[in-house]
């Protein structure tokens, strides 16, 4: 990034932020879709049942923990790759 001028750094930062937002929205969309499909079965009421609410809470927690763990593993692998490149 040191080789970029101020304008290029700003453009790069904007691209990174857009990518992060896109990734977040994809994660959120996948979470909603998966947990809704798995947990909501009764469409006779506009409200969720307590069972559905509990299911969604557990599903969301599990999904986010899984995503966090996968992210950690990618970071670990990336760090190993970077160490290998500098030896």
TrEMBL record:
Q: What is its main location?
A: mitochondrion
The UniProt record lists the Tim10-like domain at 13-76
| UniProt entry tagged with the keyword Transmembrane helix | no
Q: Which Pfam families match?
A: zf-Tim10_DDP (PF02953)
Biological processes annotated in GO: protein transport
Q: Where in the cell is it found?
A: Mitochondrion inner membrane
InterPro entries in the record, alphabetically? Mito_inner_translocase_sub (IPR050673), Tim10-like (IPR004217), Tim10-like_dom_sf (IPR035427)
Identify one Gene Ontology CC term for this UniProt entry. mitochondrial inner membrane
UniProt topology in membrane: Peripheral membrane protein
Task: Tell me the domain of life.
Answer: Eukaryota
* Keywords (A to Z) from UniProt: Chaperone, Disulfide bond, Membrane, Metal-binding, Mitochondrion, Mitochondrion inner membrane, Protein transport, Translocation, Transport, Zinc
Q: Name one GO molecular function term.
A: metal ion binding
Give the protein's biological function: Mitochondrial intermembrane chaperone that participates in the import and insertion of some multi-pass transmembrane proteins into the mitochondrial inner membrane. Also required for the transfer of beta-barrel precursors from the TOM complex to the sorting and assembly machinery (SAM complex) of the outer membrane. Acts as a chaperone-like protein that protects the hydrophobic precursors from aggregation and guide them through the mitochondrial intermembrane space.
Q: What family classification does the UniProt entry report for this protein?
A: Belongs to the small Tim family.
Instruction: Describe the subunit structure.
Output: Heterohexamer.
Extract the PANTHER family matched here.
MITOCHONDRIAL IMPORT INNER MEMBRANE TRANSLOCASE SUBUNIT TIM9B
Show the domain comment.
Answer: The twin CX3C motif contains 4 conserved Cys residues that form 2 disulfide bonds in the mitochondrial intermembrane space.
- Could you tell me what this protein is called? Mitochondrial import inner membrane translocase subunit
Source organism per entry reads Diutina rugosa (Yeast)
């Amino acid at each position: 990034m040191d080789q970029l001028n101020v304008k290029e750094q700003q453009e790069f930062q904007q691209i990174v932020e857009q990518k992060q937002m896109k990734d977040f929205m994809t994660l959120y969309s996948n979470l909603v879709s998966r947990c809704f499909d798995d947990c909501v079965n009764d469409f006779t009421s506009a409200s969720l049942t307590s069972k559905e609410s509990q299911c969604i809470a557990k599903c969301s927690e599990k999904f986010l923990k899984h995503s966090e763990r996968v992210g950690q593993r990618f970071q670990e692998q990336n760090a190993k790759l970077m160490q290998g490149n500098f030896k």
